[in-house]
Here is the input.
Amino acid sequence: MPSTPPSSASTPSTARPGFSRRGFVIAGAGGLAGAALAAGAARAQGGAQGSAQDTTGATPAVPTQPSARPMPMLERPLPEPRGKRLGWALVGLGKFTLGEILPAFGDCRLSAPVALVSGSPDKARDIGARYGIRALYGYQDFDRIRDDPAIDVVYVILPNAMHAEYAIRALRAGKHVFCEKPMAVSVEECERMIRAAEDAGRRLGVAYRAHFEPHNVRALEMLRAGEIGTLRRFESMHGRPLDPSEPADQWRAKRALAGGGSLYDIGIYALNAARMFTGEEPTEVSASIHTPPGDPRFAEVEDLVSFRLRFPSGVIADCSSSYSIQEQKNYQLYGTKGALRLDPATDYHRNTLMLKAEKREVQIQAEPASLQFSREIDGFSEAVASGREHRTPGEDGLRDVRLMQAIYRSAREGRPVKA
Ligand code: NDP
Here is the structure.
């Protein structure tokens, strides 16, 4: 799989009216540009990569008031002017798009949202007005994006079973595609998406944000630098209660839309991270699944999945996902000289990295986790614009879907299977 290069310690940051890390900001509120500059400066100060300290490691406070002295930011690269950034169309205005992705464009240097695609015209109009996005499409007229030269990249943020269709339609319309995880619900769909990208001569990336999240990136750098010796074991637990009262969880409970249960939704973080940290592909998979009988949430999708991956180097990864436990999103890496613990490892905003070595446990400081979204978006724009390799291409998404299918097969057959 592609390697994850070290993070930049000083990725520039800014925001435009209409964008906020924590939700909507109505355009016209005074001094937002100044506030964004101050926020960027605060992030720069918080970016002491690589230092270990016994502090709480809390995310540095981001000033909410406009800074009276924005000049220091001029020492850092400014974002490209809007016309020079790649234009992104966001498909599906759900919880993740509105809560994390749209606001993250405020921190992007190379990418700007220029179009929205939604089945709900009123919502699209409202969100478009707030963010200054005028190009609005529905699912029926989606193919009209072909005639919209402002759109370079289409970001598919729909229920899993819709990823393949909209990714392929976008590729056929001549657009590059960034697709949410899991890439699709079947191996065959992933292969069709990759073929469509090849046929169109366009890029296809999968939104594995951990590859851009500062604590994950720092842990990978430390592992590669030998700070815990040779990696021997990886462990991860990802869980949360599936909540049928939440609209975003309603399709997740339906196999036809979700493709699978906790494994497809959150176990995939552990699976992809095990591959990212080992830099290897597993050779054997063994798994067991337990779904509590009688719980209506699990009429169609599985609850608890425990799976073991064996890697050629001898590393063993033991991972679990569940839809019935309270929130967990952690991993641990055990090496011959020490251990790294990320807990949480895959939160949107607050991750923590601990190094345990020589009978000492220290917290490793990294830049704010929130930057992961703008970094993954700009990372794809950068790959598109430069033609360089992307950290998480479609082939990476295909491997995970193939492995998840192997995990299900192993659980069904009650024996280890070749990966
Ligand atoms: P939501 O249900 O909140 O949003 C999905 C959106 O898709 C809806 O709001 C709707 O938007 C559109 N949609 C179109 N058809 C349907 C349909 N039949 N049923 C439901 N929605 C439909 O889900 P999320 O935002 O939580 O998840 C969307 C995708 O993002 C998933 O693939 C998920 O795995 C991924 N995700 C990734 C995360 C990450 O950390 N990388 C975190 C969370 C989600 P509209 O009304 O505009 O048409």
About this structure: The CA atoms of residues 15 and 106 lie 4 Å apart.
